[in-house]
Amino acid sequence: MLGFLKEPVVVTVEINMNVMVLTLMGLISRLWGLSYPRAVVFDEVYYGQFVSLYMKRIFFVDDSGPPFGHMLLALGGYLGGFDGNFLWNRIGAEYSMNVPVWSLRLLPALAGALCVPLAYQILVELQFSHCAALGAALLILLENSLITQSRFMLLESILIFFILLAVLSYLKFYNLQKHSSFSGSWWFWLLLTGVACSCAVGVKYMGLFTYILLLTIAGLHFWHVIGDKNLSNVSLMYHFLARGLALIIIPVAMYVSFFYVHLTLLYRSGPHDQIMTSAFQASLEGGLARITQGQPLEVAYGSQITLRNVLGKPMQCWLHSHTNTYPIRYENGRGSSHQQQVTCYPFKDVNNWWIVKDPGMQQLVVSNPPRPVRHGHIVQLVHGITTRYLNTHDVAAPLSPHSQEVSCYIDYNISMPAQNLWRVEIVNRESDTDVWKTILSEVRFVHVNTSAVLKASGFIGASLPEWGYRQLEVVGEKLSKGYHQSMVWNVEEHRYGKSLEQKEREVELHSPTQMDISKNLSFMAKFTELQWKILTLKNEDTEHKYSSSALDWITMDTNIAYWLHPTSSAQIHLLGNVVIWASANVAALVYMCLTLWYLIRRRRKIYDIPEDAWQLWVSAGGICVGGWAVNYLPFFGMEKTLFLYHYLPALTFQILLIPIVLQHISDHLCRSVLLKSMFTALIVAWFSSVYFVYCTFSPVTYGEPSLSVTELKDLRWKDSWNILIRKQ
User: Fold this and answer.
1) How many CB atoms lie within 10 A of CB 155?
2) Based on the domain organization, do 589 and 706 belong to the same domain?
3) Does a structural domain hold residue 150?
4) What sections of 513-577 are H helices per DSSP?
5) pLDDT tens digits for 41-81?
6) CATH number, domain at 437?
């Protein structure tokens, strides 16, 4: 029974020494002197703020993309024991001793280092020679811009790592498809493709471009699988379901899970709360939650409420009134109703409180039991402090003359009767009998007499003049002009009014609210809202000293100064290896010209290269040229501030194309031994120039040694490069 113990257990391991050596070289190039400089480098000032907020569990929103990349950077801070206490206020600021610089920069550096062996393996899986694969890896290794970007607390190297991992995983899966379908390895690489794609998208939305490319390639490959008559219909269905699970369902589930972890970690209120809805804010610890915790859930007749505009842009504001009236005549000569002003006020104030009144009764307190207000009910809104009714009529608004003025009605005993009835419409209702709920319900107030909708128009216009204290305008907007979020309001603070006398009611309005009903927002509701905010929130794009256009990237007519030593001339720049960038452009041009030539010749039934070489040429172009195109061309349609580092994912695919074109020329265009020898010598000379440029620009890649003024001037190979030279 134990006979198997008579023989030794033998484990055979194959080690690819090329991969091991390339990995080691990548680690040395990216990890060497990683803590230098011990100062904030360029966008570390941006990402560092988020790392600190993670350490303190404070909620934030970053409109640049999903949270996975930020969480990886925060993981580095967590592993290094960072407490989050550092003021990320300027580039070049010296890090205090509590900031684990090496740990914070470690994960981007590791990702950048692993891109070197990944490049090697991708070309091997594309069926190119190990020599070509080695060339691709060395080009990634010696590309100065990739080194610079991976040595700091930035996201591009992590993004490129997951992009290359996704490409490699899919190629391994595709090569196994031919002889090992549904094997363990087949499943592993297919699933890893989906995981890597999800991680790439989770780091930056730029990863979506490569994900779409791989989905397209997978779709084309599956189209060929459908044509395989050796496969049964059941097998085809299994293939389809496996790809759908691994390439769509799992990536989507992982993407959502990134937000789940993000929201689980960031449970405390913070500076970014105000752009979220009241329901979201109330779900966070502290902040609004301290005010609203335990408020009554159902709004009833007699409820005292504050109404927050749902849009929340450019700032949150609440329906507000005060004793001042609209001027009899505006500056342009138009007349007003001279009624009490109603505005949207961006600060919490006792004048934001309103009382929900039943038009058929006089009482301003909640009955026992409370009578809840439902969708479609008619109400009057009474201003808590002045006791005047919310009103609108056919008078032009002060800043929006095509909309109706909204006021609190003052009876001047003239022929302008009060029109103060409003119909409550719950926008996010589940049925027409829904009860109006605190925080959760998003409502519109439709004026009964004119069908105008209560709207905060200050978001699209200017604030009121001095007579309106620069507060935002509120108008009655006709429904025919369409739906807009500025027409939607939600109850933020709420209490059941109990005071019958006005003086007692004013004291009540000034007091905090404390009741017994809590409101919990589901994860999917929070995820949906946060995702929508990320996609729609736009910071004002300002011209940056180092911003550039997409056209500048191809020829590297721009650079970015990342850091300058405070006393010496030591500095770090995002500058690429000029020879590699030029070679990548030439390789792309040669590939497209040769492909066009081959297509024309094949149309004429002339086949210059064997069919297997043609298929290899096309598949390699689909990955490399396609990867370059999808990661570059979309930037021409983007309205955002662009920087040179946005080009790095596209550049990586272009670099992979260089050895592919070189091997193709050597194998199929150099027909004689002499030509092959000359071409090989040319490649050696070219690669020597690549290494020479790498060494030349290493001082501004690593930030040391410090160069003299003359040496710095010698590095300005293009007049458009901004090499920093101190005044003597």
Assistant:
1) 24
2) yes
3) no
4) 523-536, 550-554
5) 999 999 999 999 999 999 998 888 899 999 999 999 999 99
6) 2.80.10.50
Query: What CA–CA distance (Å, rounded) separates 485 from 463?
Result: 18
Half-sphere exposure of 708 (CA within 13 A, CB side): 2
Per-residue pLDDT, 276: 83
Total Cβ atoms within 10 A of residue 432: 9
Query: How far apart, in whole angstroms, are the C-alpha atoms of residue 249 and residue 164?
Result: 21
What tokens were used for 455?
Answer: 């709207």
Provide the whole-model pTM: 0.82
Q: Which of 59, 474, 491, 33 is nearest to 263 (CA)?
A: 59
Q: Provide the H-helix boundaries in 398-548.
A: 502-510, 523-536
Q: Which runs of consecutive H residues, i.e. helices, occur in 129-232?
A: 130-141, 144-150, 156-177, 184-203, 207-226
In a domain, 470, yes or no: yes
d(CA 371, CA 591): 75
The predicted structure's pLDDT at residue 425: 94
Cβ(624)–Cβ(656) under 8 Å? yes
Residue 267 lies in a domain: no
Q: CA 149 to CA 575: how far, in whole Å?
A: 10
Mean pLDDT value across residues 591-614:
94
Residue 204 is encoded by which pair of tokens? 């930056």
Describe the crossing of helices 101-125 and 130-141 by its angle, rounded to 10 degrees: 160
Residue 450, domain extent: 294-515
The amino acid that residue 683 corresponds to is I
CB neighbour class for 696 (10 Å; exposed up to 12, middle 13-18, buried from 19): middle
The DSSP letter of residue 657 is H
Cα(485)–Cα(467) distance, integer angstroms? 27
DSSP state of 635: G
Sole residue written with tokens 């490959």: 221
Helix axes of 611-632 and 648-664: crossing angle, nearest 10 degrees? 160
- 267-97-38-272 Cα dihedral, nearest 10 degrees: 20
The residue from 515, 549, 568 where one domain ends is 515
Closest CA to 428 of 477, 375, 373: 375
Q: Could you give the CA distance from residue 565 to residue 725 in angstroms, rounded to a whole number?
A: 11
The candidate with the shortest Cα–Cα distance to 270, out of 49, 599, 478, is 49
pLDDT of 461 above 70: no
Based on the number of CB atoms within 10 Å of its own CB, is 137 exposed (0-12), middle (13-18) or buried (19 or more)? buried
- Considering the domain architecture, whether residues 414 and 454 belong to the same structural domain is answered as yes
Q: How many domains does the chain have?
A: 2
Residue 317 lies in a domain: yes
